[in-house]
Amino acid sequence: MDEKSGFVTDDVIKCVNDVINYVGKDITFSMTLALGKPILFINELYRRAKLDPEIKLKIITALSLEKPTGQTELENRFLKPLSDRVFAGVPEFDYVLDFRAGKLSKNVEVFEFFCKAGGNLRTPEAQQNHLASHYTHVVRDAMDAGTNVWGQLIGVQTIDGKTMYSMGCNTDITIDAIKQIKEKRACGGKVAIIGEANRNMPFMYGDAVVEADAYDMILQGPQYDYELFCPPKDPIALSDHMIAINVSTLIKDGGTIQVGIGALGDAIVSGLIMRNEHNEVYQEILEKAEIMKHYEKLITQWGDTGVFKKGLYGSSEMFVDAFMQMYKSKILKRKVFDSVPLMKLINDDKLDADNIPSDIIDQLLELKAVHSNLHEKDFNFLTEYGILKKGLTYESGSIFDGDTQYSTNLKEEQNRTEIRKLLGKKLLKGQVILGAFFLGPKAFYQALNDMSEEERQLFGMSSVEKVNQLYGGEELRTLQRKEARFVNTGMVASVLGSIASDQLEDGRVVSGIGGQYNFVAMGHVLSDARVIMMVKSTKGSGKSLKSNIVFSYGHCSIPKHMRDIIVTEYGIADVRGKPDKEVIAEMIKIADSRFQHRLLDQAKKAGKIPQDYEIPEAYRNNTPQKIVDLLKPYQAHGYFQPLPFGTDLTDDELALGGALKALKKLSTGNRLKMVSGLLLEFFRPIPSSAQHHIERMKLLSPSSLTEKIMRKTVVFALRNSHQLQEHGHQQPPAPNRVVDK
Hints:
Blueprint: E1 7-9, H1 12-23, E2 26-31, H2 39-51, E3 56-61, H3 73-86, H4 94-100, E4 108-112, H5 124-128, H6 138-144, E5 149-159, E6 162-166, H7 174-186, E7 192-197, E8 205-206, E9 209-210, E10 217-219, H8 238-248, E11 256-258, H9 263-277, H10 279-288, H11 291-302, E12 313-319, H12 321-328, H13 340-347, H14 360-366, H15 376-384, E13 393-395, E14 398-401, E15 404-407, H16 413-419, E16 433-438, H17 442-450, H18 453-456, E17 459-461, H19 464-467, H20 474-480, E18 484-489, E19 492-494, E20 499-500, H21 516-525, E21 530-534, E22 538-539, E23 546-547, E24 549-550, E25 565-568, E26 571-574, H22 580-589, H23 593-605, H24 624-635, H25 651-669, H26 671-681, H27 691-696, H28 705-720, E27 725-726, E28 729-730
């Protein structure tokens, strides 16, 4: 299709016809993960495959975004009106709908390398077709699988009178995929590259901007400007906030941060904002929690607890709303530049990005960054980064400011003095973050779209090849990512420091490895970096309560020889470079106290820790109530809120959703309380404060016994989570009213 490179059309049927006519009916279609999928193109391609059994269609992707649906009638009654409102105008993937309904066409297969956590645990076909690829290897593996059609959702904008396109939310694998697909074409392969332009997509910069000929065909028109998928935020539990407070002490001012999506990512940023904007309160909490007492040496060497004067730089495969919140709070403000000499000067505190010193040319000469007799290439470098002001020209070995001529022979001191008149005020082309893809709530997309072009250029987008590793630009990337803290999440940690993040012991994939290994590896390579793995100490409740700190586990994502720092709500385990007996001791210290002695007994039985070792008294009270007692009083003053950065959900939806989620947790943790409470509810009148919730669930006038039971279940759920008013008084909310998943 190279003869049609950059062809723009609004006809998706013609586009699919052209693709099939060109590559044939054996199609391996690869597309980006998450938001950047060309929905209307893949829906038409899938429709054609359903109609034509001769077509063999393989779909390779990840994180196929789905509107939320419930597993029960009660959950669906809650979720449908919410979904209809929040996701209004967002088209769905027909292949996903058919897949979930068990109706996927037999000539179509779907392969994913990452999925929503837990979304495919009970789906054998998805488990069997999972691709275990590191994020940086995805393009390689997709090409090896025979990719011959590539598709992506892109942004579009007119720049200097010319229509330009941006890879928008997904530069991640797209940059390298397009490159490799064109190389395949150059070797005689028949391949097609499709873009679907959506004007709601934020037009991002960095390496994202391309011309139309980057794609063979671009679908463009009003029908493609549909609303973008915008997942609501998960509420943050108090235990998550405590994990975040621990992590916040390890982030050094002037350093680099990477965090992921979800409640823990938001919690970390909430903690950093507290540290920056309410430092007195922050210090008070650190003292009460005895964090400095227990970890003073670690924090002094590797962390910080003061305000952010220099600020942070973000280097993260996923550019999430948490980074936007840090930017708004003036924490994400350390600018980096794609120049080794400039980064050297900045890191040595010889150059301020917002204040170019008068001796900058002398410093660059000393570093041999420019020639003593300035070449045109030197001039372009100096003007590109704003070291020389705008409006200058270079002609015949001289610099001209209008009619005034300046010598480029900088061996002469007088010429160096004269050229200072041409210096700019601040450096240009700085970035506060480099991301590979983004996904977030509506407000996140709106914030990007509302920015001026100049401000949006602070947020760079590039490939995972650049973001997730050092290879190919080691010196520059090392300088940019100074004092890096790579913060990731694990499900289970062994007492020896290995982490399971993506898979259960029986082999079922929970999500996928994504880029975690890449960040862990990079964290060990960079001399001033640390890897911080967050693990919730327990999962479940009641009889189903289990420890996430275990003696051993049948799978690991990160092996013990790559252990570094592990954090739970109960503390910080610095286990890098330590012998096994010390690692085990540190891990038991941050485990829930209900499981500590069993872990210690297992370690002693295996001969991995001295028989006379005892858990220090200071670490024997690791209980949820300890967290509640510490943090709950601060909620009345606005701290440690479940949704500190807002939500697309209404207050009623939060209350009812939290109640139903807590009820589901109760049903697995304490079935006796669940059943007895529900039976008791049949002998109680329905409180007036529950009426509007029942009305929303369409249960005011139940027409069957099933609906009557559902109505009582809703009332019990609200009562169980203290959401009902009794005798005119509002009951106090439970410590974790909204439970994080």
